[in-house]
Each structure stands twice: as structure tokens, then as C-alpha cells.
Design a protein that fits this description.
CATH architecture of the largest domain: Orthogonal Bundle
CATH superfamily of the largest domain: Hypothetical protein af1432
Order of helices and strands: HHHHEEHHHEEEHHHHHHHHHH
CATH class of the largest domain: Mainly Alpha
Strand content: 5-15%
Number of domains: 2
Bound molecules: fe (ii) ion
CATH topology of the largest domain: Hypothetical protein af1432
Helix content: 40-55%
Number of helices: 17
Radius of gyration: 28 Å
Number of strands: 5
Length: 367
């Protein structure tokens, strides 16, 4: 039977569609909504049943009529409480204003009885998920009613697209800053890897409940951006061979605030925190604000450790390259002074992995 034939079938004539009962078991048994007696709706439910994308059907009071397996899976992964109502289900991801807008749009014929907007889903053990929710009207009866009897809800996964655009844009900025400060070789790649490795170690430790899957996913890329503010530092200060004067130091230190300013539009505040605070020290002797201890955001404390370990291992005009063990000894010495003592303990636990990252990502022309 063709789809248009199904649509023309008398809604009361459900006998003819009996085999569908088997094919849409969850919708029929769990939701048991009267609207499912409409053949058009049952046809839609049947086609959504096998879709790898989350689909649902709702009635005119925005209560679920049907949710496909992918939609149910998404609710389970992100631990949404089970509700009949779409708005109550997504209460955590929709501001009251957005929920109001949605409700108004779906009742507004001039706006086509449709709505689309973004929903972001979060959980400790699953990567954040950004979806675009499309809600479209469905007219079920023969006669055209003033309002649609039901709506189709489709969640379009735009996470990757969004991350790709965002990171593409900020990577270009990073490349621009590297053109000014180009003697650091693969330093930023290694800082990315050390920071990710340290964060992975914290993930399983209850002392750091804020370290979730997204934290690990984001910290590498954002730790690599720590010095992006140097784009605003004058070249003669940035590339000066000898020691900096006090005045020049003052300007140099501004790269932290400049970085925070540049990254302020990045949606994850971690970007700004790292740029601003990667030169703060645990004992309050760092810059720009002399913050101390846990006042310094965790992501910045991790980046500091990663950044300093790598700086120690590199040969610079003012210092030789430290062998791994000397760098480790220096970091141990500065436990609770420059660095978060608990993070130093984690660092010491995985120091061999960090040495390996350094070796595998060495600069081509020596350190
Ligand atoms: Fe810096
Ligand atoms: Fe650095």
C-alpha cells in the first residue's frame, strides 16, 4: 500500500492496518495514545522506528504520542526524567523563555505552526551533544482543523559541525599567534597531549568531580591555546634575546589578559580560564592576579604543569634542555609552591607517559 493511500484511509478503519501493531511495538504498548489510531501517524511511527536519528510525535498539548528507539536512548544517556510532556522532559535544556517561545510558535498559524531551536544535552559520562530540534505540524483529519492535531519532532545532531566550525576558527587564531612566536616548535602540541593525559587520570578520581568527558575532550585543544594572547605582544618584546626590563615584563604579562579577551567568545569558559590563569602559582606568587590555591581554575592548574614541564625539557636561549628526571625533580621541588600539590602527585604517577609524549613529539632540530 502506498503512503498516500494510507493517508486517505478512514481513521476509524484500523483493522486493515493490524500488522503494523507488530512493527511498532513500543509505540503501541507504551504510549498507547489515541492519536496512534490515525493511519498517517502510525505510518510515520513505523518509518521512524528504524531511523538512526531521534524522532518523536507529540499531540497538540505537546505530550508524547510516540518516541523512536533513538529518541528513547538519548533520554536515557542524558538522564532526562520520564515525563509525558516534551517541555517537562527537556526542562533542563530549555530556558523558560525558550519553552514559552516554542509553545507560542506551535500555536501560531502565521508562523506555520513550527519551531526550531538548539538543545544541548549534558551528562558526566557522555560527551555533550548539541542538537537542533525541528518541530513540524501534522494534519491528521480529512477536514482541515484550525490547529494541527499533532507535531513531528526531529533532533538533528549538530555537535560535530559546531565543534568543527568553532575549532576551525580558533585554530586559525592560534596559527596567527604562532607566526609571531615561532621558536617554540611543537610545544603547543605537546602541551595539548600532557594536559589531556593528566585530565584522563583525574577523570576516575572522585576528588575531581568536575572532570567529565567534555573536560577531557576540551582541555587538550584549549591548553594548546594558552599563549594565544601573545598575538597582542609587540614583536621586539616577544623576540628580545636578553632579559626583559621591568616595563617590558609588565607588557609581556598582559598576554594572559589579552588571551582571555580573545577567547571570551568561546562557548566553554575553560578557554578563558586557561589563557588568563596559566601563569598563576599555587602560593599566590604568579600573575596577573596573584590568585592562589583553588582560586585558580583547575584547567589552568593542569595547563601550568603541562606548560612548565615542557618548557623545562626545551632548550631556550637562557637555559639548557633538562633531561626528564631533572624536570621531574624541579616539579617535585615546586609542589605546593608553583603547582597544585595534588596535581603534582598525579603528575608523578604518570610521569613516564609524559616523557614518552615528549620523545614522540620532539622538535625536528633538537630541543
Ligand atoms: Fe603564557
Ligand atoms: Fe607555553
Amino acid at each position: 500500500m502506498a503512503m498516500d493511500e494510507l493517508d486517505r484511509t478512514d481513521p476509524d478503519d484500523v483493522e486493515e492496518l493490524a500488522p503494523l501493531e507488530d512493527e511498532v511495538p513500543e509505540a503501541a504498548s507504551e504510549d498507547e495514545h489515541h492519536l496512534l489510531s490515525f493511519p498517517a501517524l502510525r505510518t510515520l511511527a513505523r518509518s521512524y522506528e528504524r531511523s538512526p536519528a531521534p524522532y518523536a510525535l507529540i499531540d497538540d498539548s505537546l505530550r508524547f504520542v510516540y518516541r523512536n528507539p533513538r529518541f528513547r536512548a538519548l533520554l536515557a544517556i542524558y538522564e532526562y526524567e520520564s515525563h509525558d510532556s516534551l517541555l517537562a522532559t527537556f526542562a533542563r535544556s530549555l530556558t523558560p523563555e525558550t519553552a514559552g517561545e516554542l509553545r507560542a510558535a506551535l500555536g501560531n498559524g502565521e508562523r506555520g505552526f513550527l519551531w526550531k531551536g538548539h538543545l544541548s544535552h549534558r551528562a558526566k559520562d557522555a560527551p555533550a551533544h548539541l542538537t537542533k530540534m525541528h518541530i513540524q505540524p501534522l494534519w491528521l483529519s480529512e477536514e482541515m482543523r484550525p490547529r494541527p492535531e499533532a507535531y513531528a519532532v526531529y533532533l538533528d545532531d549538530v555537535t560535530e559541525e559546531n565543534v568543527r566550525h568553532l575549532r576551525g576558527m580558533f585554530s586559525s587564531l592560534l596559527e596567527a599567534s604562532k607566526m609571531k612566536d615561532n621558536d617554540t616548535g611543537r610545544h603547543i602540541e605537546r602541551v595539548n597531549l600532557y594536559a589531556s593525559r593528566l585530565a584522563r587520570e583525574l577523570y576516575h578520581d572522585p576528588r575531581w568531580p568536575e572532570v567529565d568527558v567534555d573536560f577531557i575532550e576540551d582541555i587538550g585543544f584549549l591548553a594548546a591555546m594558552h599563549d594565544v594572547g601573545k598575538i597582542g605582544t609587540p614583536d621586539d618584546i616577544l623576540n628580545k634575546k636578553g632579559p626583559l626590563s621591568e616595563f617590558e615584563w609588565g607588557i609581556m604579562k598582559e598576554h594572559t589578559k589579552n588571551g582571555a579577551f580573545i577567547l571570551s567568545s568561546y562557548p566553554n569558559p575553560m578557554a578563558k580560564e586557561i589563557a588568563l590563569s596559566h601563569h598563576e602559582r599555587w602560593n599566590g606568587s604568579g600573575y596577573p592576579y596573584n590568585w592562589m590555591g583553588p582560586m585558580i581554575p583547575l584547567a589552568a592548574r593542569i595547563t601550568t604543569l603541562a606548560d612548565v614541564y615542557d618548557a623545562l625539557r626545551m632548550r631556550r636561549s637562557y637555559k639548557p634542555a633538562y633531561p626528564h628526571q631533572s624536570a621531574v625533580a624541579k616539579i617535585r621541588e615546586d609542589r605546593g609552591i608553583h603547582f597544585d600539590p595534588e596535581l603534582v602527585d598525579v603528575f608523578l604517577k604518570i610521569e613516564e607517559d609524559l616523557a614518552l609524549i615528549f620523545a614522540e613529539n620532539a622538535d625536528e632540530f633538537g630541543q
